[in-house]
Amino acid sequence: METQLLKGREVVSQINVELRTKISLLKKKGVVPGLAAILIGSDPASKVYINSKENAFKKLNCYTQTFLFNEDADDDEIISLIKKLNKNDKFHGILIQLPLPGKMAVKKILHTVEPSKDVDGFHPYNLGLLLDGDPNFIPCTPNGIIEILKFYKIDTLGKHAVIVGRSNIVGKPMFALLSQNFKMGNSTVTICHTKTKNLKEITLKADILIAAVGVPNLINGSMVKKGVDIIDVGINRVSDNSIKKYKLVGDVFTEDVIGIANSVTPVPGGVGPLTICMLIHNTVKAALNFSSTRGSTG
Ligand code: NAD
To answer: Could you give the CA distance from residue 191 to residue 62 in angstroms, rounded to a whole number?
Structure first.
């Protein structure tokens, strides 16, 4: 079987056409979509993500500012900044780069973000709306996965989707999306995690397999059935002999599933580009909401 590589950049190009139109419409009203990003500590992967995000925002003429804090910053310092950003009209979205240094009160910090500026969709209010079937901001990675499935015409209706990983940022919102009575939902969904017994038995039954685990090459060819569509969310650094001394691999052993799967997202170049694209999408949405509210009260 020929396995199609589901390339994220092609999906992004199409979404960007629509985003550009919305951004220039906002510009005519004097609104530039703005994102405040808060980066605490020096996690190398987070720095790479923040740089890519800044470049992507600039490319689309959106505004972004990153607020940097040392590892030893305290919760109150961050919470006080978020409260100020909540009131600052220059920023329509606020992003807290995860993971936070171990000692920090992650939930307390995330919950301080005003839901109308929660472009990551991590606030319980937005997660609640998603479960309620009436989402406002959908977490970027799961939303990006839906866009990949839509672009490559991978039907979800009645399919058995297996999600490996139950994090609040990928696995759980992915479950909410695929199980809902949405156009790109209506799947029968199984969610697996560290306590799942006989993972292989379950992954072998997947029509659509989503791996969001953080374990390099966990899913190999013997664990997937012929014709499955695979979304590999994992981004893992493994050492090699290159100048960088590492390479990025997914949670899926890609070479091993080629010839078995109907399609698979490559790592890098699959889901990753969509995550940033959906962050811009959510920021533009927040700016549009802001602009319409300002219009009605001004
Ligand atoms: P996480 O650590 O919060 O969650 C991992 C989940 O995997 C947990 O729910 C855990 O129960 C499950 N798990 C771990 N080992 C397992 C095993 N052996 N068998 C079954 N389940 C297991 O991670 P996360 O934030 O959801 O991220 C997962 C991966 O996706 C990471 O590699 C991360 O870097 C990557 N990621 C990529 C993007 C992107 O834009 N492509 C975005 C977010 C996360």
So the answer is: 36
